[in-house]
């Protein structure tokens, strides 16, 4: 059952971050596992409260901070906006951000990955990590 998966995986994530496992923190981590978008802290809080009404703002913010500080959660500030979150365990991808709607889309391009490695090698480097964010407007026909 999905709840069992999130409980065991979520508990492991919380322990790895050095956090005590509580119902409130489990609700927060469950939200992160279920997220198909890049929620900000307020969105995580609202969604977590749908799972457990006792989740406090302080608990949500501290949990997100602890997970990010341990590298278990990525923080994104697309175009200087609010901080958004996604689990670090997700496979590598890049982001395309619609500057008019704020929509964030994920994409993977082997061609771009190859080009980045080639450019780094030309300068005598190996890539250890990177982020690519493309800020775009929809084409008008």
From TrEMBL:
Record's subcellular location: Cytoplasm
Signal peptide: none
Top-level taxon: Bacteria
Keyword Iron: yes
CDD domains for this protein: Fur_like
Keyword line: Cytoplasm, DNA-binding, Iron, Metal-binding, Repressor, Transcription, Transcription regulation, Zinc
Cofactor dependency: Mn(2+); Fe(2+)
Biological process annotations from GO: negative regulation of DNA-templated transcription; regulation of secondary metabolite biosynthetic process
Entry binding sites for Fe cation: 92, 94, 113, 130
A Pfam short name: FUR
GO molecular function: DNA-binding transcription factor activity; transcription cis-regulatory region binding; zinc ion binding
Keyword Transcription: yes
GO CC annotation, single: cytosol
Cofactor note: Binds 1 Mn(2+) or Fe(2+) ion per subunit.
Bilayer-spanning residue ranges: none
Complex formation: Homodimer.
Similarity comment text for this entry: Belongs to the Fur family.
Protein name: Ferric uptake regulation protein
Organism expressing this protein natively: Roseivivax halotolerans
């Amino acid at each position: 059952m999905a709840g069992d998966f999130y409980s065991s995986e979520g508990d492991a994530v919380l322990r790895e971050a050095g956090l005590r496992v509580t119902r409130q923190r489990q609700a927060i981590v469950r939200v992160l596992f279920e997220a198909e978008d890049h929620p900000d802290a307020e969105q995580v809080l609202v969604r977590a409260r749908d799972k457990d009404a006792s989740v406090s703002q302080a608990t949500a913010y501290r949990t997100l901070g602890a997970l990010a500080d341990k590298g278990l959660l990525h923080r994104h500030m697309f175009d200087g906006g609010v901080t958004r979150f996604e689990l670090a365990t997700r496979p590598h991808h890049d982001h395309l951000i619609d500057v008019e709607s704020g929509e964030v889309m994920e994409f993977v391009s082997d061609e771009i990955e190859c080009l980045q490695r080639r450019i780094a090698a030309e300068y005598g480097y190996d890539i250890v990590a990177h982020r690519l964010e493309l800020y775009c407007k929809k084409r008008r026909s």
